[in-house]
Amino acid sequence: MGTRKTTEYIIDIILLFMGVGFWASSQSIAHGSAIGLGGEFMPKVTSALWILTSIGLLINEYTTPDDKVKGITANVKGFVATFVLLFAYIFTLDILGFIISSILYMFIQMYIFVPDALRSKRNYILFAIVSIVTPIIVNEVFVEVFSLILPTGLL
Amino acid sequence: MIIDGIVSVLNPTTFAIILVGVVVGIIFGSIPGLTSTMCVALCLPITFGMSPLNGITMLIAIYVGGTSGGLISAILLKIPGTPSSVATTFDGGPMAEKGEGGKALGIGIFYSFLGTILSILALVFIAPPLAQVALKFGPIEMFAICLFALTMISAMISDNPFKAIMSGVMGIMVSIFGISSITGSARFTFGFSELENGFAQLPVMIGLFAVAEILNTAAEGIPADGGHILAYKLKGFGVSLTEFKDQFVNFIRSALIGIGIGILPGIGGATSNIVAYSVAKQQSDHPEKFGTGCIDGIIASETSNNASIGGALIPLLTLGIPGDTVTAMILGGLMLHGITPGPLLFQTSGDLVWGLFAGFLISTIVMLVVEYGGIRLFVKVLDVPKYILLSIVLVLCIVGTYGTNHAMFDVWTALIFGFIGFFMSKYKYPQAPMILGLVLGREVEQNLLRGMQYTDNNFWAFFTYPIAAVFLIISIAVVAWTFVKLIRKKVANNKAKANA
User: What is the pTM for the complete model shown?
Assistant: First the structure.
């Protein structure tokens, strides 16, 4: 997506729009039970600062020469795969429970992360073992020893 | 009170907690990509079931171990384990290449210990009197100090002050979501009942520091070659008595730099190690040897980064203002345990404060023994592939976020802030101001509203309060100076471009 400068512009504009959104939303905040300044004061001040800073960011970007560096240099495929995986992991936590969803997550995450040169049957077996053992141990330690509650789902 | 506090940590349970904290801290510190900030965030939920003293002592133990642990990979892999040990790589790496890895490790561990001990002394002698002074502070002074903290970090941490300020503003904005504790007004809830309580701090922090790192790794990819661990043979602490005497000035100077930078809000070991290294090089009789494997550089870096720990705890305990990102997490931990740090803490919970000081000292001694004795184990951990470690970290993130309030909303919060944190690091928006804004946002609001009540809604009257005026004027000057610096840089760049 274009150069870094273009991406920075897009981020600055998104931030500006968000600031305007916060400002508009802060206008409808009730004064509340305070005698002096109310609960709407800080949101108004903060959103005003947000807008001013994003305008500052835009001006700063405008006065900075374009270094022609690529806007996004990341491995988009790996990033999107991980993000979708995280989304699916959290989505299934309540349904499948902590242990099952964590086993699935860990195995797939390691599969995504592992460099091509290290993809082997031996490593996949290792991933499977780590994926099964870790959530069970974590569940035992945190639930039994530290008395935390984790989603149980199907179990 | 002092004796009660010290006695309260002298029991097997607290010792075991400290040991676990230090070991886990060293492991997180030594592995590049995992930081003590991340470790403290992940371990916060574990402390819920503990007494406040044990819980916070564990977090401090992680902080001590994590700050020092970075030296292992800095020397043996030539990759800093944490930002606090960046300067250690400059001379630690070359020493290891010359076959002096053991000496470099010994020196690093020993001076980490000494730096921490000096910072404990500073904490013990500076914090109580400072708390006495701070008792006189009202809302106007506290507002000015919070503002000072936010402007200092924004000015000092980034090349682009707009990005640092935006990060701080984002933190404050996130903190004011939900129903106002002062006025009862619902703010930015957008019809979601979950947002009425606002965003819990822990999921936001876990998102920004841990989930973001996982997304970052996914975007960058993991190299097949995780780095070659250089050979080492640990023997003694690596310094002779003569070397210790020769390095004494370097050591004291670096410790003072570390403590001073630690006290400044928002910046800690990540800054102090570079500053101390630069000063040591400037003041040295043999600056040309720096970077080739001379012990001066390791001593400067490792003394200063650990000295920042005690420095960072001073504003946290006396004013409730974190000295860096780890102490921001510890502030979150204190609040979760129902403890409000600040000058009153020394009066109402003096035994807790002295217990924490004692726990800090014990953690430092444990760090020396464990890191020295268990170096082989920690080096082995460096061999564990990052693709396995990060998957485990994410599972721990889920435990940390869900385990706090048993709410899936918190887990989604961590994912959303992980996404935000990823873009922040990708486009060089520093995360530290956001964390500071997050933990101080409500404090800023509360003190500002109360202060405005005192002055009949006249903000300029804040300048008639001497202490507040000093902090406000410094804040304005710091911001002005930052922008002058930015404009000068732009003018110089334009001139250079025109001449080219």
Answer: 0.84
